[in-house]
Amino acid sequence: MFGSVVLGIDPGVSRCGYGAVVAEGSSLSARACGVIRTPPGDPLPERLAALQVELEGLLAELRPAAVAVERVFFQVNVRTAMSVGQASGLALAVAARAGVPVCQYTPNEVKQAVAGYGAAGKAQVQAMVARLLHLPEVPRPPDAADALALAICHLSAGRFRAAAGVGGGFSSPPPAPGLARAIAAASEKEHR
Q1: Going from the N-terminus, what domains does the chain have, and what CATH number goes with each?
Q2: Which of 29, 71, 125, 136 could hold 104 in an S-S bridge, CB 3.0 to 4.6 Å?
Q3: pTM score, whole prediction
C-alpha cells in the first residue's frame, strides 16, 4: 500500500519539477524535490521516454498515496503549451499505470491553497512553500518549489473535501489536521 506521501509534478519536457510532501499531524515536511531534465537537442520521443523512466522511478522510490499534477490551463506560447501538455499527459499515465490516484490543479488553485491568494506572485508562493515545509530557504530551482506547492495544495484540498463530506472521484490521503492553521500562521508571519 502507498504511504502518506503526496508527489507534486510541475510538468515540462525540458524541465519537469517534482516535490514529495509528507503530512504528519499538522506538520508538513519535504521528502524529496528536484527537476528531471531532458536534453533539448534529443528527438521528442526519446525525451518523453526518458521522462517516463524517471517518473516511474520516482513513483517506485517514493510510493506516494497520490500525485498532484499542474493542469495545463492557459498558455500564450503554443509550443510551450504543447510541451507542457505532453509532459502532463505522461505524468498522468505513469501514475495511473502505477495505480496511484491523480488530481490536477490550476496555478490559481495552487496559489490560493498555499499563499491564501489566487493571484499571488511566484516569489510569494515559493516563500510560503519554504515556511510551510520548515525549510531554511526557498527550494531551487523554481520548478521544484512549484511541484512542492502542488503537493501542499493537494493535502489542503483533501482536508476541505473531507470536511465537506465530498469525494473527489479518487481516494486522497488523510487530510493534514491543522494545515489551515499552519498556512494562516505562515501567512501572518509573511505580513508582519
Answers
A1: 5-191 (3.30.420.10)
A2: 71
A3: 0.82
